[in-house]
Amino acid sequence: MKWLIRTFFIVAIVAAIYLVYSSYLDDQSRTTIAAIALIVAISSAWSSYENFYNQLLAKQPQIVLEFDLESRYKIIQLVIKNYGSQPAFKIKIDWDQPLTSSNKEHKITFNKTGVDEYDIPVLNKNEKISLLVDKDKNMFDTFKVGSLIYSGKITYQRVWDTWMPKRKTAKFSISLEQYRNATDNANEAVKAFYSTPLLLKEIKEELEKIEKSIKKSNI
Fold first, then answer.
1. What share of the chain is helix, strand, coil (3-state, %, to 5)?
2. DSSP of 113-149, one letter per residue?
3. What is the tens place of the pLDDT at every residue in 128-157?
4. Which long-range CB contacts under 8 A does 1-7 form with residues at least 24 apart?
5. H-helix or E-strand containing 25?
6. Does the predicted TM-score (pTM) go above 0.70?
7. Whole-angstrom Cα distance, residue 2 to residue 178?
8. In 26-135, which ranges are continuous DSSP H helix?
């Protein structure tokens, strides 16, 4: 439908331009002015249509699949999020190459219900789900360079229950390769939350050693 409307606008503008050209050659100034006004009107209508279409598109579900290496220290997470304004129902993810952890036996999947029809029942506006994949070092040490690139398709419905559901399809491509030789991706706050308990444990152990030493010296 969209390509048909755009084709109509293009044909109309081309016809109006031809009218301007032919009227100019025939020295018909009124016709030329009218044709120019027509071009302006068609361009304005086209712009309004594109704005309306983009607004309509923005309200639809926008399902994005991505890797997250920042939220947890040295941990890879798989995240799916709905960036659109409307919910998506019965979401199904089909991988061209299955995503597994470093042991190559643990398949990473959002399907926790065992239902074959879909993986996720519903994702509302700005709702996201995160899955633990593995430690980043384990993944990069286990899989050879160039193998951590994944693709597939995501299908979903805009309504939950309908007689003949029309499913939307969006292809995806995600990769971990760009993180293989990159510097640490976690922000300083995440690092601090990770390292602080370890530091406190070390301090506790040192205090216990000092306490034991003092007790021995007092005996």
1. 45, 25, 30
2. S--SS-SEEEE-TT-EEEEEEEEHHHHHHHSPTT--E
3. 999 999 999 999 999 999 999 999 999 999
4. 2/53, 5/49, 6/46
5. helix 2-25
6. no
7. 36
8. 29-59
